[in-house]
Amino acid sequence: MGMRFTVLSSGSTGNATVIELGGTSILVDAGLSARRVEELLREREVSPEQLSGILVTHEHTDHIKGVGALARKYKMPIYANEKTWEGMKKYVGQIEPEQRKILETGAAIDFGSLRAESFGISHDAAEPVGYTFDDGVHKLSLATDLGYMSEKVKEAIYDSDVLVLESNHDIEMLRMGRYPWNIKRRILSDIGHLSNNAAGEALSELLNGRLKRTYLAHLSRDHNMMDIAKMTVRCSMEDCGIFFKDSEFELRDTYWNMPTPWDEVGSKTGE
Question: Tell me: the pLDDT tens digits for 187-211?
């Protein structure tokens, strides 16, 4: 079996994704309690003991809530850049020096035959990153919590077979929502979150024939709905002149309260 993944949880209440290849399993973020992460792993028949480590994208609580407890319980290494380590140290508690791994932005690391590489993104965190995963043939990219899609991000994820992409909010729902204006302004800014429209515009430049499917992720529970996100992304792509059949390219769901099915990256359908 080739590289596969499952998004365990996605959204402002917590984020975590598992990537597997052969006997190697990597967790990206642990933004829920350690107990909840364990429950979600069991739902996908993954034992925490088999994880080779946790890759951290940035220090916000919805990405690191369970990192410290999991690290201490299972003695697993935690990978993050220096500024992210500095930003999250008061939240994750004591982690043994040998478990504290520095992975600078733009650097790559191999876990067996699985290569992980980070890339910088724009968000209101110390030094936030996304990740790509490559098994030598196929590529998976994770890009959430980014205020806009920079040329460098597009370059990093362009040749992906499968993409997990932020589609955080419907702009009008956010503008009319209950949040104070200063929070709305932050979300809408270049260091905030990617809107449905912006996700569609980005995908119109990334749909190159190799990209099979994109999971819309980190949806706001207050200012978005999956059906609205998928419709808006598709309309935004069509406005950019990109039309597709579902048999050629798929938009797929993620969930805040349950994991997605396993997706085999090299498969046309993911099954």
Answer: 999 999 999 999 999 999 999 889 9
Q: How far apart are CA 130 and CA 143, in angstroms?
A: 5
Amino acid, res. 87? G
pLDDT value for 169:
98
Structural contact between residues 160 and 137, judged by C-beta atoms closer than 8 angstroms: no
Tokens of 247: 């048999």
Is 80 exceeded by the pLDDT of residue 1? Answer: no
d(Cα 50, Cα 73) in Å, to the nearest integer? 13
Q: What is the mean pLDDT of residues 251-269?
A: 97
Report whether 268 contacts 250 (CB < 8 A). no
Residue whose entry in the numeric block shows the structure tokens 């503008």: 175
Average pLDDT over residues 51-74: 98
Task: Provide long-range contacts, Cβ within 8 A and 24+ apart, for 173-181.
Answer: 173/222, 173/223, 173/224, 173/228, 174/220, 174/223, 177/222, 177/223, 178/222, 179/222, 179/223
DSSP state of 217: E
